[in-house]
Amino acid sequence: MKIVVAPDSFKGSLTALQVGNIIQEALKNEIPDVQVEMTPMADGGEGTLETLVYATKGKRFQVTSSGPLMEHVTTEYGVLGDGKTVVTEIAAISGLPMVPVNKRNPLNTSTYGMGDVILKAANDGYREFIICLGGSSTNDGGLGMLQALGVQFLDGNNKEVPPLGESIYNVEKVNFTTLDPIIHDCRFTIASDVDSPLCGKNGATYIFGPQKGVREEDLEEYDQAMYRYASLIEDHLGINLQKNPGAGSAGGLGFAFLLLNAKIESGSKIIADATNLKNKMKDADFAITGEGQSDYQTLFGKVPSFVAKLAKEAEVKTILLSGSLGKGYEDLYGHFMSCHSITVGPMTLVECMKNAETLLANEARNIAGLLKEISEERARQKVL
């Protein structure tokens, strides 16, 4: 029996690699002759860097940069197995969990660190970049990142504005001629499954702002400030990009990268291509995938639905094993053979996350036991 194990991370508790290893161990313990293709997945959010580096046998390099609150942080960039492509992850530079709950306000956070890390990698000789945009604490339209790369943003007094979200309210002049020349030689691919435009009711501020600390009563004013900021840049450069799908990724960081001629691709697809997941599905009997919580939103391009789509193309049935099943999970049954939650009895989120490893191992063992029975029944049928 061949089983492809391709989970996303259980955010806040287990990485995709950890999840995959736990499921793989359960399968091998229950089905000694099983062939497991273990392929950790991601969609451009937390853990994408680790997954890509692992899948391609690349390397990770620690660097010091600016965090979401412009404090010094130790972060990293990865280099893929090809030895020339850098991976950076906004979640590891200006991620939401890096900001204390009582300080979460995107007016005070910055993407400056992303630009700084890119320059460090570029000065180390790299020119190819995969930028992972999920999990940010920011909503600055990429202003901080662009400033780190040399772009000037001036207020009404011709003074450089601080590299913070609140500065989009005050920008009066833009100067891209000061962009570091090395960036003209760099090529950026954005890993993101967010297709939101920059502004409007479906844009960065309205859709993702509240979870980052934007108050409901401030959404319209913030969105209008973002529109003025982006329009000023577009007029300066003679282009129109803020309505492009993905411009609203990471609080408008997607828009900033589009200004640098980046192309936006599905994060799940980038990982699947790098790991050769489609070919691994060939001749598989089952696929197992999962994420921290599965609900109706899972079908909107998240890792499990992408894995299930590839499996269906290969006529392979997919099992969903997630931390929990949320609102509208019933919609998932048309895409998965079965849907499983690791929780047992009434549990708080804290309890579930604290015991995620044990809970996952137990439910993976249950699934492995059922697959063992299927395997043995198939063997008996062949004998008959």
Automatic annotation (TrEMBL):
GO MF assignments: glycerate kinase activity
One Pfam family, short name: Gly_kinase
Coiled-coil positions: 353-380
Gene Ontology annotations of biological process type: organic acid phosphorylation
Record keywords: Coiled coil, Kinase, Transferase
Key word Ribonucleoprotein present: no
InterPro entries with a match to the protein in the record: Glyc_kinase_flavodox-like_fold, Glycerate_kinase, Glycerate_kinase_RE-like, Glycerate_kinase_sf
NCBIfam families: glycerate kinase (TIGR00045)
Family: Belongs to the glycerate kinase type-1 family.
Protein name: Glycerate kinase
Organism this protein belongs to: Salipaludibacillus neizhouensis
Organism phylogeny: Bacteria, Bacillati, Bacillota, Bacilli, Bacillales
